[in-house]
Amino acid sequence: MRFRAIFFDRDGTLTYANKEKIKWYREVVEEWSQKKFELDYEKMMMLFDLAGYPREGLKSIEQEKDFWRKYYEELLKNEGVVDSLKERAELLFSELWCNNDRELYEEVIDVMEYFKNKGYKIGVISDTSPSLQTTLENLGLGKYIDSYTCSDLVGAMKPAPEIYNAALESLHVSAEESLYVDDYDVEADGARALGFTSFHIKRKGQREGEWEINSLKEIVEYVKRQQGGVVENV
Q: Which CATH architecture group holds 5-16+104-226?
């Protein structure tokens, strides 16, 4: 098989959260509220509802900015913060929205360089909002990536076929011509069901299946083996 494209998930595959930003976020909210700050999934979804996250998703950068400003206001109110509410919410927004909030895994640039130099088309498929492109361009990946497919703009989340098909159409390739990698096994399986050669990246722990990998460099090794080439360090 001659592959023509590779698609990546974003969070947990290419990027991870900036721990210093998370630490700052927690500490500043605790300072303002004078109590311990914890944010689990259920609480975050409640705040999404209070901030008015639209059922159809966010459709523009401006709409996304407006939502996150409202989200941080609702979060602070929920923590009992009333003084300088809008100013403090604006500080959280300016520090946490597309501002050094993610970091790249160490092998990402080398892997991107390999596939770009081999003439592959490169795409990202993520269950997220329109700032997907901005977040990755801020990390220096804009020169490698040819298409960005986010769930809010497509109107479907992985593992629904619609989002994978939208990504394929954006690069004019078929699933059979494409590689995919995701840190969530269900989403990797969804791509494989459509015909992608799809990998589940599990950065910690032992592999548990044929298509499970611990590093993105293993996809390069796979491609070289398929082409009968010599596997060497990327």
A: 3-Layer(aba) Sandwich (3.40)
